[in-house]
Specification:
heterodimer, A: Rossmann fold, six-stranded mixed sheet, 41% helix, B: Ubiquitin-like (UB roll), five-stranded mixed sheet, two-stranded antiparallel sheet, binds zinc ion, Rossmann-like_a/b/a_fold (chain A)
Amino acid sequence: MAPSPCALCHTNRALILRPKDHSKLCKTCFISVFETEIHHTITMNALFKRGEKIAIGASGGKDSTVLASVLKTLNERYDYGLDLILLSIDEGIKGYRDDSLETVKRNAEQYGMDLTILGYDELYGWTMDQVVEQVGKKGNCTYCGVFRRQALDRGAARLGVKHVVTGHNADDVAETVLMNLLRGDLPRLSRTTSIITSTPSASSDPASNTNIKRSKPLKYAYEKEIVLYAHHKHLDYFSTECIYSPEAFRGSARALIKNLERVRPSAILDVVRSGEDMAKLVPGSDEGCGGACSSNVPIAEEEEGGCGSAAGRTVGGDMENMEKQLAQNDTAADNDLEIEITAKSLQKAKQHNRHDSAAVPLANGKKTKKGVTPRKTNKQVMGQCKICGYLSSQEVCKACVLLEGLNKGRPKNKIEVGYEVQDVQQRDQGADGVADVMQRTSIGGD
Amino acid sequence: MSNEDDVPITIEFSGGLEILFGDQKKYSLLLPAKDESGAPANVAFLVRHLCDKVMKDPRKELFVLDDTVRPGILVLINEADWELEGEDKYEVQKDDHIMFVSTLHGG
Ligand SMILES: [Zn+2]
Ligand SMILES: [Zn+2]
């Protein structure tokens, strides 16, 4: 085939075929267009405020690395006035994370961003290695996934950062839309398509620093283009193998998306858009206002891929009970209603009335049983976890249920789950930087 | 094994795909100039060759599915998207740099 010229500059040789519109672009024009589109996503959705401090959930993987790189570029180019930092969660698996950890360290240097690593040990009192020691290898992914879901919010709260951005891309969103569609779970579909999800505070205290906003600036970016951007910009990222063993259902949804893309590349964004349109039809959805009012609407955490091997394991003894309990609490491992509230408000609540379940009504539709199709949006009464203060549909959030089980088996219980929000344990970046990483595929969602 | 009809090329794996190829990212190899049927070696033949001769991991399906590169793996022929070059029908040329990049791995 004769080389095609770039559709934009008409000069350079085209190297990229864009999945969304089949346009053929040269490397320079592609990089420029990719960045400009993210800029549009950011401005159209008013994702950021000038002066805002933003924690980038950084795993060292392609998505979060590209996100950090692009945000740095755009922040400088368009003078967003953002204070960007990297936040990594270390689940504490010796050896396994070394490479991704090193990658985030290098990213911190390359992008001149502060990096904070928070370990599961700091957030929960247990490293994953310790969990495995206690419960065995089987089923430990359940712990990892449940802990992971709260980790970025807890970490941000510790740092006094109110906005966490994650590297979820269009493929991730399309995959989640399909999964929820196939489950018949439109309420959750509505939440997961939102570009801004906000974890609500149970407190009306405006000074609350745990009303953490979450957003996904790469929501409309194809995974293919993210990888190509990283490639052509020579970004330094790390990949794990774990994606090859996602839970069967998510794996199938992912394969379906990738197969559709081969045949009809625009399908991915079409699914995302369909998801958004369907979300508008769901009662109680915040999509009707284009996400502008979403900070007022409590939204449960988006669905994130769990570390695949959690599903379908046979486990013995305590683990089995734990799994049962969890299954009762919530049917799917990816369900997630746990939202952190302020330590301040927690203390307040304790002082005032010792009411464990200062109930806060949330619009959501989580309470579905396996195999039962939800017919409408359920209004669910949310309380806060009486142990850690996270908002939870149960008296005790999933993380605390797991911790309780773990701590029972530990002779000396010196674990207190992070009440000390102000006690920011920030590892010194130092000259050689420190980082740490979580691969979303291994523990589910970045 | 090599003869003068072999085509010298470089192959690169990234995005986690190198895990399937003995954790080695770059390979210089000599590809037979003709495929099994005597037709000029194309990318489809190269992929079969890589599977049979180079891949260390038994999980072939993580690289090849339905006789072609698994969806989600990008193929760059001299930096260009293979879709711009005729995909697996592209006839491999001397000194080509062909890269396989997985988008399937975690980030
Ligand atoms: Zn151009
Ligand atoms: Zn809790």
